[in-house]
Design goal:
Strand order of the largest sheet: 1-2
Number of strands: 2
Number of helices: 13
Number of domains: 1
Oligomer: single chain
Helix content: 55-70%
Distance between the termini: 37 Å
Shape: globular
Structural class: mainly alpha
Order of helices and strands: HHHHHEEHHHHHHHH
Radius of gyration: 20 Å
């Protein structure tokens, strides 16, 4: 057995680097074959919303979906090779990827089969999300030191709050909310994939900080064995970057609910494991704004009968203002990069 597979804390960066490379290479190597296979079995591609930007109906018609399989598959293989799957944090992250991924796949499959942009009902989707989140939160709680199990850490202020029984519903909302936020953001070529790669990179660093007593301070809790989440995050970064090769405009394949629901959920799970839920809102500010734009649009329309934004989620609003798709995507990536720098400053 090679030394870097000893799963010791000292090898975590080496294993994270290997996990990133293997996931990246696998996604790049398998992407073309997956696209051809999905095209062969689906033929018609993902149905495009008729109430969305009119340019999308013409430009994106016939593009296959379920591309999340590429990210999930390459990442999970990489995790199996380089992460210690015996650790609760690792296997529950993988399980969340699989469960949410299967739910998203079922939704994508029905969409393609029936050629409808709306397949699984919101109630069914939320039920699956919350049930899987309940399992995840309980497993995470069992593997977290009792002294901080229900504690919410506030970055920058070096302050913490003891939420007691309120922490469980809070964590459930974080996981399900992150899943839906990424799902809403997946509306332009390369948008969600690029932002996910950036945010997972930040949490790869955070996992290293929380996994070593050396970094233990009031805003950086010491969580035994959480350093292993660096390998998990590195695998996901590699998978996302490899996927972008096929997803940047003009996309040859869409991530679909298969990818967005699962990746958003595991992002929430990682933040709960590392006790950095607030940091997720900072680094993932674009995901937060995307979600808020939909909520504002719905509430405002019900109250006034008018639209607050030209179109929601907000990335479509900028398209309606005349921004090109690439300009919106690169601008949102830029905001995420800036937010990531601000987020990393909380570790100082």
């Amino acid at each position: 057995m090679w030394s870097f597979l000893s799963y010791s804390p000292e090898t975590v960066w080496l294993r994270a680097g290997m996990a990133f490379l293997v996931s990246l290479v696998l996604s790049l190597a398998c992407g073309g074959s997956l696209i051809n296979y999905i095209k062969k079995i689906s033929k018609t591609g993902q149905p495009i919303r008729k109430d969305g930007p009119q340019s999308h109906i013409k430009e994106k018609k016939g593009t296959p979906t379920m591309g999340g399989i590429l990210i999930l598959g390459s990442s999970i293989i990489s995790m199996l090779l380089f992460a210690n799957v015996k650790f609760h944090f690792v296997w529950i992250s993988m399980l969340v990827l699989v469960v949410y991924g299967l739910a998203g796949f079922a939704d994508d499959y029905v969409k393609v089969k029936k050629q409808t942009p709306n397949a699984m009902t919101a109630k069914v989707k939320l039920f699956i999300q919350f049930m899987a989140a309940v399992l995840a939160v309980n497993v995470i709680g069992a593997a977290t030191p009792n002294s901080i199990e229900s504690t919410l850490f506030i970055p920058y202020l070096k302050f913490s709050l003891e939420l007691s029984w309120l922490y469980v519903p809070f964590a459930l909302v974080v996981i399900a909310g992150a899943s839906n936020a990424v799902n809403l953001s997946d509306g332009l070529d390369g948008l969600a994939g690029g932002m996910l790669a950036i945010v997972f990179s930040v949490f790869m660093v955070v996992a290293f900080a929380t996994g070593y007593p050396l970094f233990n301070e009031s805003s950086i809790p010491y969580i035994p064995k959480s350093y292993e989440m660096s390998v998990v995050c590195a695998s996901l970064v590699g998978g996302c970057i490899g996927f972008l090769w096929f997803n940047i405009k003009k996309a040859r394949i869409f991530m679909g609910d298969t990818g967005s629901l699962a990746l958003g959920a595991v992002l929430g799970v990682v933040s709960v494991i590392l006790k950095h839920e607030i940091l997720l809102a900072v680094v993932g500010i674009v995901f937060v704004v995307e979600t808020l734009s939909v909520i504002i649009q719905v509430v405002y329309f019900k109250k006034t009968g008018k639209r607050f934004f030209r179109m929601a989620p907000i990335h479509h609003h900028f398209e309606q203002l005349g921004w090109s798709e690439n300009k919106v995507v690169y601008s949102f990536w830029g905001v995420t990069l800036l937010a990531s720098v601000i987020g990393l400053l909380s570790l100082i």
